[in-house]
Amino acid sequence: MCIYLRLKLRGKSNVVHSNPATAAALSSSHLRALVHEAESRWRTPFLIGRLLFAGFFINSGVSHLQHRKSMAAYARAKGVPQPELAVTISAVPLLLGGASLLLGVKPKLGAMALLGFLAGVSPVMHDFWRDEDPDTRMNNMIMFMKNLALAGGALALMGVDEPWEASIPAGKPSLGDKVRKIGRQIAA
């Protein structure tokens, strides 16, 4: 597999092919500096994106609680048993998952909670394939596809190593976390 990187070495911009011979030619300190530079360029966009993404889910969770009666009427029409209770309970993964991503506290678990919510709710509440009215079908398809895209975002965030930048520390790292970190440092 070939990957090309634009590297900045001693003020000169170079393109380096990531084959073993080229990687061996660069010193490990140069590689570490380049990786650090590349990571630092993405910290701010990642933080802003994370805040926007988390804010969406927190807002949705609050909305589920504030408008549970009107949302329960829609859930009832979709055949959800005990709709007001279901709407109230559905706020929990939205609020906890959103807060987890916002604060960076166990964000993989938070992303998993959001993914579980989206996977469970979307096919029931936005089943556009059953709608006969074209406007209702289009609206439900848009909402279903929006939820699918949000699920993709949550799934992508599950792949980001912890701890995240600008996060509230949650406990000490486990032995597995320490071993992975040492392995990444050795590989770099």
Would you give an account of this structure?
- With 188 residues, the chain is mainly alpha-helical.
- It has a domain at 43-160.
- Helices cover 70% and strands 6% of the residues.
- The chain has a two-stranded antiparallel sheet.
- Helix 2 packs antiparallel against helix 4, helix 4 (83-103) runs antiparallel to helix 5 (107-125) and helix 5 packs antiparallel against helix 6 (134-157).
- The protein is elongated.
- It starts with a strand and ends with a helix.
Oligomer: single chain
Structural class by helix and strand composition:
mainly alpha
Strand content: 5-15%
Helix content: over 70%
Order of strands, main sheet, comes to 1-2
Number of strands: 2
Q: Residue-averaged pLDDT, rounded? A: 84
User: Rg from C-alpha positions?
Assistant: 22 Å
N→C terminal distance: 18 Å
Count the DSSP helices: 7
Write the layout of secondary structure elements.
Blueprint: E1 4-9, E2 12-17, H1 20-25, H2 28-66, H3 68-77, H4 83-103, H5 107-125, H6 134-157, H7 175-187
Antiparallel strand pairs: 1-2
